[in-house]
Amino acid sequence: MKTIAVVGGHGQVGKGNVRELTNHGYFVVLMGRNLKKMEVFAQEFLPILE
Coil, strand or helix: which one is 5? Predict the structure, then answer.
């Protein structure tokens, strides 16, 4: 299992990239400048990661 860091993964394009990576079994570390956007993003993806 590989871990991939995604910079800007909470944006429009990044969300799709993160979704594809997690669907293929990768562990994704999200990095970005906007903490509020990342918190919302994490809540949206929580059911997928469980």
Answer: strand
